Amino acid sequence: MHGVSFQSAARVFFDYDRIELYDEENSQKEDRYDTIGDISAVSISSFKQKYETMIGNVSVFAKEKDILFVVYTERRRISGKGEVKW
Question: Where are the domains of the chain?
Fold first, then answer.
């Protein structure tokens, strides 16, 4: 994780302008994706008015942009009945 919490890293998915690419070179065993985006990018102004706590304590009014590069894979669980769960 390199000193970045899971909550902070997950914020990259709130950036609708993020760049996300399939990592073909490192996807021999499982599909991997590279994503780069602004982790301070929660641009829902009415969100703060409706809810006391914001997702991951993201500041809507952040003056600096925090850019993060995240590598991830999607994991599936298969139940005892053979059902796939994401």
Answer: 6-85
On the 0-12 / 13-18 / 19+ scale of CB atoms within 10 A, 82 is exposed
Residue ranges in 25-78 assigned as alpha helix (H): 45-50
Digit-coded pLDDT (tens) for 13-61 = 988 899 999 999 999 988 999 999 998 865 444 445 554 444 444 445 4
- 77 by Cβ neighbours in 10 Å (0-12 / 13-18 / 19+) ranks as exposed
**Can you give the pTM of this predicted structure?**
0.61
What whole-number distance in Å separates Cα of residue 19 and Cα of residue 4? 19
